[in-house]
Specification:
By secondary structure, this protein is mainly alpha-helical. Helix content is about 75%, strand content about 0%. The chain has one domain. The protein contains six helices and no strands. The longest helix is centred in the middle third of the chain and has 27 residues. The relative contact order is 0.15.
């Protein structure tokens, strides 16, 4: 079951960049075109995650009590933190845990998925 959901988690890596552009006032025209494009990519990713969550709930793979928009933003924060931590602490992860960066990320992604998975899955 989890394998079907990992491809959406790979996309979430872009959320961190989009998040950095989420506070820009695009009405003021005081921004770079790339910033607006990044923001739009973030909005598109939010929509994909929404579809992923709703589909998982409909199929019974994900908990039915999930609030979609808060879950998107909470997941975004947790994933970006996990990815950033793994990138910045790769040697420490190897030394302290005996895990490669990839193994650590896979474990973290699995933990995050389990936090929204239906208990019967």
């Amino acid at each position: 079951m989890i394998e079907n959901h990992y491809n959406i988690l790979d996309i979430v890596r872009l959320l961190f960049t989009a998040y950095n552009n989420s506070e820009i006032d695009f009405e003021s025209h005081d921004h770079l075109p790339e910033e607006k494009e990044t923001y739009q990519i973030g909005e598109d990713i939010n929509e994909k995650i929404k579809e992923f969550l709703m589909s998982g709930i409909d199929k019974g793979d994900l908990r039915s009590d999930l609030k979609i928009m808060p879950t998107i933003f909470v997941f975004w924060g947790m994933l970006s933190g996990l990815i950033q931590f793994a990138a910045n602490k790769e040697e420490y992860i190897k030394k302290a845990m005996g895990l490669s960066k990839t193994q650590f990320l896979e474990y973290g992604f699995h933990m995050l998925y389990c936090s929204i998975a239906d208990k019967g899955v």
